[in-house]
Amino acid sequence: MGEDTTEPLLIDEDAGVEQDMRKIEIGNYAENSKKYCSNEVMTSKYNLVPLSPKFFLWRNLWEQFHRYANVYFLIVASLQLIPGLSPTGKYTTLAPLACVLFVSLVKDSHEDWQRHKRDRETNNQPARVFRVNSWMDVTWKEICVGDIVEVPKETEFAADILLLYTGSEKGHCHIQTANLDGETNLKLRKAHVDSISSASPLPRFDPKRPDSYTGIIACKPPDEDMYKFEGYLERKDSTKRTSRAPVDVESVLLRGARLGSSTPSVMGVVVYTGKETKLMKNQKESEMKTSQLERSTNHQIFRIFAAQIMFCLVCAVGLGIATSGFKNHWYLEPSNLDTPFVAGFVGFWTFVILFNNLIPISLYVSMEAVKLIQADLIRSDIKMYYAEADMPAKADTSSLNEELGQVQYVFSDKTGTLTCNIMDFLKFSVGDTAYGTGTTEIGRAAAARAGNVLDDDRPSNIKLVKGFFFYDKRISDEDGNGKNWNWMDQPNASELAYFFKVLAVCHTVVAERNGKEIKYQAQSPDENCLVNGAKYLGVEYMGTEGSETVVIKVKQRGGSEIIEKWQLLHVLEFNSDRKRMSVVVRDPNGKLLLLCKGADTVVYERLRKSVTERELAIQEKNRDFLTRFAKDGLRTLVIAQAELDEKEYLKWAPKYKKATENIGNRDKMVAEAAEEIEQNLDLLGTTAIEDKLQKGVPATIELLRTAGINVWVLTGDKQETAINIGFACALLNNDMGLFKFHDSVTQSNITQTLQNFARDADSVRRDYGQELGIVVQGSTLQLILGDQINDVRPENATHFLNIAKHCKVVICCRVTPGQKAQVVRLVKQNLDEVTLAIGDGANDVSMIKEAHVGVGISGLEGLQAANAADYAIGQFRYLQRLLLVHGRWNYRRNCKLILYSFYKNICLYLTQFWFCFYNSFTGQSLYDPWSLAGYNVIFTSLPIIGLAVFDRDIEPKRLVGDDDSAGIEQFPELYDDGRKHKLFNTKVFWVFTLNAIMHSAICLFVPRFSLDSMADSDTGRALGLAAQGLSSYTAVIFTVTLKCGFEHSSWTWVNIILIVGSLASWFVFLVIFFSINKVNGTLVHTATPSWYLVYRLFSLPVIWLAVFLTVTIALLRDFGWKCFKRNFEPNLTHVIQAWERKKTDGEIHDFDRHRLKNEAPKLFPRQMVKKYKKKDDRPQKESVDPTPHAQERQQLEYLANMHLDAPWTQSPSRSVESGSPFAMSGSLNGTYIPPGPSRPQPLLQSGNNFNSGVQMSSPHHSINSHSQLMGSPASLTSPTVTQSSAALDNYRFNGGATYHGTHIYDSM
């Protein structure tokens, strides 16, 4: 027997990993089935086993009674069952409560039944496993940990599987992971090296004899991290010698992924099953979000409950007083009378029952029904359907529908959210030369700000390929045939060729061959673009031979091609912390190289320090190229390499291997090993690719900002790129003051800088009303918000928030996913405003979940964001419709639903309170109990639901810009209703409540006095209690139903049917109920009139007259108030509604915000003319004058006559290049307010002229060289301003102010 030895495998013992490892014996079904869970999954909540806690009835009731309102009504229903206590019968609360609970039960049970069906379909899918020396067919739920399974092509994996065999020599296969992360590109997976390596002394996996492959898999317990797997495979050879080989995520196939079509089948061993798979671990219930409107409603419910207790106490005291006087009534038996205290105590509970429905029992079920319909309307909105991706809008969280109408802060990702995430190779640099022509939308916007027109300088006849928009005559053929091989004739052709080869080798792209065509699959659109760029430039990536050789095809002069093979030794992969990726390779000449590409901030700091002057000049030149590319909004990468020493590499390789084999601390050790070798790099060049703005982004942001919504952009781009994109998409404009943090800001001066910024922002907004913005980088955010390493002063976040509150726009660049969530959390926790986060990638999920409302975009980065969000849309431009149309409508509708629900219940049940003053507070009910039971369920429930679903006050074309609203002015200012909580707040709620109290008094006293002296003409008897109750109840039904009609802003045939039907239902009920009552006397109640009396009462004209007078008097105030508001104090909504009713469709196009004040008196001749619209704060659309220099001349005239107010807040939207034929001078007055305590100092005196070469300074402030003045030659003289010779570029009176060396206010 051989010695039992084990090859060492690095395990992090400090982390206690070895003790926590689970050990799986391959193929041992008997043992594994006992130790581990089955592969059956259950996503349902309920079952049909009565004794189980998940029985649908018990579980659903438990959930429903977590609502305080349901508990309250259950208590009331229980009190009603006590004999002699309830004045309204035993079941008048229990019956409606049962209806409400039953409706919710049916809805929840139906949803859970659908989950049961999906579970059965999933669990019963066929699978093929090897057991008991043979292959057998089983279902998914019968698969066990340790089973060897076979999965055919284009089939989903049933469990988490360690890949052992693929059929290919190198053990490669491609899988689709769209169900896991939403990414549609193929991923490469590799069979475990121990199962395919011919160098291993152990036998390889044999697909004909799977049982011959034995061993133990040790891995960490199940977790939800899909991108990490740590473990090892332990096997013994014929000599009983044990070896261990590490297992990582590259060899694991996760449940939910699907095998690609290029591999016939794969085999592997199951490691996790059922609820322990990583897919199921990630399917956790999201945190329950409640809307601000619902939270506010809960507060009002407590106030109404307090008012109800007050009413009950008043009546209880009244009953006690009345009881003390009952002894004087000779017809009452004294022995039957309680003492005043006992009568008051018992009466209190009677009144609790009598007034219980002041809190509407139907409110929650009505809101649920309405929100479900509203969510369906969002899903079915054809205007938010993105046809290119077949992507309709999704609403996964209907409870937040009205929250969409109250958003104050929008936090947006950039790439894939504002931009298309479709990359076009546009420019690059090699050595000290930049290549590429053409411009971008962002570059054109930047040029326009400087008063220039930037044309696309590419020839019109060139052939542009999707993903490759490059043209440069030094590189490309001039005949526009799409060939880009002129670089071969350049003096630096060898450098160019090598650069293209690096692009074709340094990546993780998978080449999928379909016949002669090669299609690239990449995890990042950037990588795909760069590899395609190299292909079109003459170096084509052909794929890999096995896992160790990269094959490329290189074009030669004359059109010939050669094949080069580069040996791939290691891939140091990209992640958001490293911001770079590298490969270690041997080139065809045997040279050992490290090729690296990444962000400039991380690559430049790893460049070789000992460089020649020329190399240093090349580095600086490329910095300039990067800045230029960034100003065009291009995504830049730096390409570098290092030639490795063989001895140093041989020392490093074992360290890296041990790092990859580490269990428990692998990621950290791999990063440290990569950091060690990624040093002393030589700069090769840079790349610049364009990510175009999505269609409609500028218009959408313009509308959102006009609606008063603050837009924050959180991106990982460079500051210059972020700012230029901000201008291109209308986030920023030239009239906006822009705060920027200087690079010299440190931990020691950040607090003072923030305080100075906050003081300046407050002064500018308060005194001058100028719009402000702020740009902050991730490194500065670390100083402000802190992280796990840096300890910061807590007041820094407060100061930053104070600045941000004054800013319409905040741009955070170079931020990590964690910082995105930090920023959202800062606003969410410290400001009582609704936040919305929108993004498209996995790096946006954290901020989407953090915000009050999360919106995902289904983009090229997958469905991670869309799956994690509350709502999902196909493009950013649909956000305007989601918020300004659906959000605003739903907020208005749901506000009316809540207010009306309280109103109608208070209106009815307070008539019982007024009636107590006539019945000596005995608790006698005025109404039949079954009429009360049907009030919320039948007679008044449907009209308000119809309003909450269909009501529209303004057509969508007046709120958003789309194809149907071309040429029509939009008024997104109407969004203020929700943003400022105008339609539901404490004041509005109690105004509605007081109106309901007034209506309840009218509905009791008007019929009371109208019928007081009336008698039945046939019998001569007084009409009595039944007549009073019937007439008052009928008056209440008509009053509240017509009041609902008054709340409508628009009418449909559905609303009309619901209102008329609700009124008719009361009379149908009377006919049916009293017909039954005539036969079955057990339904008779003291307040229930007989069938004959009902017939007689409604045949009396006086009853109808009493009802008519009651309804008219009650609603007269409402009608008069609405007429007054519309005619004498109309708001913007009223004006637009009146205009659209008055004008034809063709004339509507002529109506815009500038005509509001002139047109309003014509529409409302009796009104007091008001200013309906404040200063329009939207960036004005720029009109292009074809006359040369027309824009410059216009700007010079404006500048020469303007008065410069303090602080420097006016900046020209156009500038003039030095040497312009237009000379200018003007009389300007200006004062700059320093951030310190010093008094304002005069800066510019009247009569001063301006020169293009000055630097101004004074004891308190200065404009340094990066903040520039430019103009035609002139001179500047002032006793407080000194001259110096600095070449300056632009008139920027508000730019670059510095105070005591700290960058304070840098306005664009």
N- and C-termini, Cα separation: 81 Å
Let me know the average pLDDT.
Answer: 76
Structural class: alpha+beta
Strand order of the largest sheet: 14-33-32-31-15-27-30-29-28
The major pleated sheet works out as:
9 strands, mixed
Structure description:
By secondary structure, this protein is of the alpha+beta class. It contains 39 helices and 38 strands. Strands 14-33-32-31-15-27-30-29-28 form a nine-stranded mixed beta sheet, sandwiched between helices. Strands 17-16-26-25-24-23-22-21-20 form a nine-stranded antiparallel beta sheet, sandwiched between helices. The chain has a six-stranded antiparallel beta sheet with strand order 3-2-4-13-5-11. The termini are far apart.
Question: How are the SSEs ordered, and which strands pair?
Answer:
Elements lengths: L16 H4 L1 E4 L3 H7 L20 H9 L3 H13 L13 H30 L2 E6 L2 E6 L8 E5 L7 E6 L6 E5 L1 H4 L4 E5 L2 H4 L19 E4 L11 E6 L5 E6 L4 E2 L4 E2 L5 E8 L5 H4 L10 H33 L15 H15 L8 H17 L14 E2 L11 E6 L6 E12 L2 E3 L5 H9 L43 H13 L4 E5 L2 E5 L3 H12 L2 E7 L3 E7 L5 E12 L7 E7 L5 E7 L1 H4 L9 H19 L2 E10 L2 H16 L4 H12 L4 E12 L3 H10 L3 E5 L4 H10 L8 E4 L9 H18 L4 E6 H8 L9 H11 L3 E5 L3 H14 L3 E6 L5 H6 L2 E5 L6 H5 L2 E3 L4 H39 L12 H11 L1 H10 L25 H4 L6 H25 L13 H23 L6 H27 L11 H7 L3 H28 L3 H11 L2 H4 L7 H8 L26 H12 L28 E3 L8 E4 L17 E2 L33 E3 L2 E4 L3
Parallel strand pairs: 15-27, 15-31, 27-30, 28-29, 29-30, 31-32, 32-33
Antiparallel strand pairs: 1-8, 2-3, 2-4, 4-13, 5-11, 5-13, 6-7, 6-12, 8-9, 9-10, 14-33, 16-17, 16-26, 18-19, 20-21, 21-22, 22-23, 23-24, 24-25, 25-26, 34-35, 36-37, 37-38
Helix pairs in contact: 3-5, 4-10, 9-10, 9-27, 11-27, 11-29, 12-20, 13-14, 16-20, 17-18, 19-27, 21-23, 27-29, 27-31, 27-32, 29-33, 31-32, 31-35, 32-33, 32-35, 36-38
